[in-house]
From TrEMBL:
GO terms for biological process: DNA replication initiation; regulation of DNA replication. This is Chromosomal replication initiator protein DnaA. It comes from Candidatus Nealsonbacteria bacterium CG23_combo_of_CG06-09_8_20_14_all_40_13. Residues 141-269 form the AAA+ ATPase domain. InterPro entries: AAA+_ATPase, Chromosome_initiator_DnaA, Chromosome_initiator_DnaA-like, Chromosome_initiator_DnaA_CS, DnaA_C, DnaA_dom, DnaA_N_dom, DnaA_N_sf. Oligomerizes as a right-handed, spiral filament on DNA at oriC. Residues 325-445 are annotated as: Domain IV, binds dsDNA.
Length: 445
């Protein structure tokens, strides 16, 4: 077999052990570049893919290669960028709009939001890699791309980076970035002013639609109906759709099944709370942006104590820099501890039962009276059990005390509810994701 046939065989072997989305994301544009003695060189399209294959799939790649080339002992990775595709005319390409009659204006993207300024870590690696892949071939791969995670974790940065990259490659592209709230307001305004024709042109005669915070479409039947048709129009003509949310599609209350299923047609990628190393890297990057120098102990203190999201990290950094500039002080660990004292105390010690109740009610779109009540339908029992679990594990309440907080429920009911969630965390990935997002909201400032 030649190199191409060998690699095709290797990919066939690897593909059966991975999900379609995983395989497509990491192996689609790879090739066996050369074999020299016992060293195999693989061509990969970008640094994201190189790092991911080295860290996550290296052993599997090596063992699979050895099935076909016995003497291979080392696998190396070389970045070989994919050339832009040739433009071809499609048989069923939609007609170009009359530009004199109508022209879509691109959203003014924030130039700071690029892939180069996005710090990649374990918490966001998949989302970053798929976002970059989408920007290179919009409409061809991962369509739609659905990114979810808590507030301030970088979803908007990634979405705008996609828009910036598409326009960087081709300024004539029509890329629309919009919040779900603005889409809703535009739709309502179009109905009131009888200008639905213009509204449809605004959102359908484009090359890419990037929508932030789609969860706000919850229970808006008219807006969901219009978004459904807009989605279909764009998707059927291979135009890119990128959507962000604070939770996965199936966890959005009041979202029609037909939309929820469509949001999962492409790639669903989550962004979670950054770990210590990523937080430290983000702080160093922000310091470079602001042209300020902070010592390693200061950066370590911030990264160790501000754990919620990127926005809070930057806010803490701004507090320290501003305080030192206004008072003409040199930054020190003592000053940092003083400036952030209230912030860090609040984040660690101010979780209350009221905040848990409010967060759960907001997340599941239910009323407190129903959480405290006796109704046993699934839509209420599940959130109620999560409240029990959080009161037990985050506030260390006894079972009888949790029962009192929940309207006088028996402690055996509380024990059962806590065990139900504890058991679910071992088996149910959706529950893990939801609980992670809920905790981010609980401890956000």
């Amino acid at each position: 077999m030649d190199l191409k046939e060998t690699w095709r065989a290797v990919l066939g072997d690897i593909e059966v052990s991975l999900s379609k989305a995983n395989f497509t994301t990491w192996f689609k544009d790879t090739n066996l570049l050369s074999v020299e003695k016992d060293i195999a060189i693989l061509a990969v399209p970008n640094a994201f893919t190189k790092e991911w294959l080295e860290n996550k799939f290296h052993e599997q790649i090596l063992k699979t290669l050895q099935k076909f080339i016995k003497n291979i002992k080392v696998v190396k990775y070389k970045i070989v960028p994919i050339p832009p595709p040739l433009i071809t005319v499609k048989a069923f390409q939609p007609a170009e709009p009359n530009k004199e009659e109508y022209e879509v204006k691109n959203h003014a993207f924030n130039p700071k939001y690029t892939f180069e300024t996005f710090i990649v870590g374990n918490s966001n690696h998949l989302a970053a890699a798929t976002a970059q892949a989408v920007s290179q071939s919009p409409g061809k791969l991962h369509n739609p791309l659905f990114i979810y995670g808590g507030s301030g974790l970088g979803k908007t940065h990634l979405v705008q980076a996609i828009g910036n990259e598409i326009l960087k490659k081709n300024k004539s592209k029509k890329v629309v970035y919009v919040s779900c709230e603005k889409f809703t307001n535009d739709f309502v305004n179009a109905l009131q002013t009888k200008s639905m024709g213009k509204f449809k042109k605004d959102y359908r005669l484009i090359d890419a639609l990037l929508v932030d915070d789609i969860q706000f479409i919850s229970n808006k039947e008219g807006t969901q109906e219009e978004f459904f048709h807009t989605f279909n129009e764009l998707h059927q003509t291979d135009r890119q759709i990128v959507i962000t949310s604070d939770r996965p599609p199936k966890a959005i209350p009041g979202l029609e099944n037909r939309l929820s299923s469509r949001f999962g047609w492409g790639m669903i990628a989550d962004i979670s709370v950054p770990n210590y190393e990523t937080r430290l890297a983000i702080l160093k990057s922000k310091c470079d942006e602001k042209n300020c120098q902070l010592s390693s102990p200061i950066l370590d203190y911030i990264a160790s104590n501000i754990r919620t999201n990127i926005r809070e990290l930057e806010s803490a950094l701004n507090r320290i820099v501003t305080y030192c500039q206004l008072n003409n002080f040199l930054p020190s660990l003592e000053i940092t501890q003083k400036v952030l004292e209230n912030v860090i105390t609040y984040g660690k010690g101010n979780l209350t039962t009221d905040k848990i109740f409010k967060t759960i009610c907001d997340f599941f779109n239910i009323k407190l009276v129903d959480v405290l009540g006796k109704k046993r339908n699934k839509e209420l029992v599940y959130p109620r059990q999560i409240v029990m679990y959080l009161l037990r594990h985050e506030l260390n309440f006894s079972f009888p005390k949790i029962g009192q907080e929940l309207g006088g429920k028996d402690h055996t009911t509380i024990m059962h509810g806590c065990k139900k969630i504890e058991g679910g965390l071992l088996r149910n990935s959706n529950l893990k994701e939801e609980l992670s997002i809920i905790k981010e909201k609980l401890y956000s400032f």
